[in-house]
Amino acid sequence: MKQIKKIKLKNFKRFRDSEINFHEEKNILIGDNEAGKSTILTAIELVLSGSKNKVESIGLESIFNTDIVKEFLTGEKKESDLPTLHVEVFLNEQENPDLNGRNNSDGTISDGIKLVCEPIEELGSEIREILNQDESNFPFEYYSVNFTTFSGEAYSGYRKFLKHLSIDSSQINSEYATREYIKTVYESLAKQNQRIKLRNEYRLQKSKFVEENLEKINKDIDKYQFSVKTGNKSNLETDLTITEDYIALENRGKGRQCFIKTEFALTRSGDGQGIDTLLLEEPENHLSHTNMKKLISRISNSEAKQIFIATHNSLISTRLDLRNTILLNSNSTSPISLEALPEDTAKFFIKAPDNNILEFILSSKVILVEGDAEYILMGALYESVTSRTLENDDVHIISVGGTSFKRYLDLAKLLNIRVAVIRDNDGDYEANCAQNYNGYLDDNINIFYEEDNEKSTFEICFYEDNKGICDELFLPGRKTLTALEHMLKNKADCAFELLDKKSDKLNPPTYLSRAIEWINE
């Protein structure tokens, strides 16, 4: 199985100098907007394609790191200081001497390929002329685009060392993208000699059609004749499509197209043909929840290929095992792997109900609560303590259920997320709260609870600090239940009514106030 072990990026888009190690099978790239998920997929695709045209169609000004360009233009603008762009893809052992060598920034004997964009030496005088101008003019047009293996041998798109396919769901309806997709899959599943034979047979059948069918019309025409298109733009590869139940791929809806393209790309014939590297850009786009689950199952069970997925979807991240996740942050170019996440926690999230795991992972400050009532009221209680909103302070409230707290704290320890856990003492604060989290407490993780065992739940604590309001809202019309008993039996509904009618008059229990103050320390 051909695999990408790691990628090194220098001055490529937002990455000035980064190294990212990959998993053998699945790599889930997550992060906030502008974190670099799509950039990594683009970098991999460009190097594997070996296509100068692809680089030029994107434009060097679009892929060069903007900060390094600005620094150069505001500096002395020496020709010798012109920055270069490198993308190095390190491969597993390919048993191909053309790939093996020290032509890489590690200086180690490895298999791999790379893209280098650097000034053209022969155009030094022209470059110096541009740099001597007063205007801020970076000489992108005087840069070369070179693809070489780690042995130092040049390669191009005609020689692909890994068969790869990129599916971008945002371009799912693009005629060009669909045509290129079909062509790539066809070339990966049909051997070259098969393709040549089929191309020849297809051209022959076109000629027969002209001779046997159009001849009936052409015999009545003196000077001109009808025929069918041939040539590079009208051959078997350009005319091919993929059908499902006799309906062409391009005539399907966006969601179904996305599903079919991904599932079909995961196909691998028995003789070892197929895609080696599959790049998926936000496959969740256009898919219903049901089809998303089906697609995840198909990806999860796929074999003999390496998959890279850039996503904002919690279901994809958790169901495909969080240990395969690579976290990217828009404030940093240093990726974080979740490979060290405990196995039982990773398996928990695979099987757990749908969750807000990505919201948690991408947050810097989180308050975890265990019930709907706390979640509903937390915004108003936060404002009563701080006179600010949760959004102002970039604090996220996530309801996870008391049995799941430790699973989220395993992630918090890896990612250095500041987390306040708010939980009920359930009648024994020492056992359920104080001792239960001994191995988790640190500077960024703290547990907050009521130390009076008689106040075993949030509702009881809240009632004690808001008796007047609660009695006013929930006592009228009650024949048997007290206001507190009604609140305990209707937790979410009562919380919503409190928020709806008395949001500016609510007093948080003391342990909630301490949590709110601590999260902002």
Overview of the molecule:
The structure is a single chain. The protein is built from 21 helices and 18 strands. Helices cover 40% and strands 19% of the residues. The protein has 521 residues and is an alpha/beta fold. The protein folds into 2 domains: 229 residues, Rossmann fold, CATH 3.40.50.300; 157 residues, no CATH class. It is globular, with a radius of gyration of 30 Å. The model has no long low-confidence stretch (mean pLDDT 89). Strands 1, 2, 4, 5, 6 and 7 form a 6-stranded antiparallel β-sheet that branches. Helix 14 runs parallel beside helix 20 and helix 18 crosses helix 19.
Topology, pairings included?
Layout: E1 4-12, E2 15-21, E3 26-31, H1 37-49, H2 52-58, H3 60-63, H4 66-73, E4 85-91, E5 100-101, E6 110-119, H5 124-131, E7 143-149, E8 164-168, H6 175-189, H7 192-218, H8 236-239, E9 243-244, E10 247-248, H9 254-265, E11 277-281, H10 289-300, E12 306-310, H11 314-319, E13 325-329, E14 332-337, H12 343-351, H13 357-361, E15 365-369, H14 372-386, E16 395-399, H15 405-415, E17 418-422, H16 429-434, E18 445-448, H17 458-465, H18 467-474, H19 483-489, H20 491-502, H21 510-519
Parallel strand pairs: 3-12, 3-13, 8-11, 11-12, 15-16, 15-17, 17-18
Antiparallel strand pairs: 1-2, 1-4, 4-6, 5-6, 6-7, 9-10, 13-14
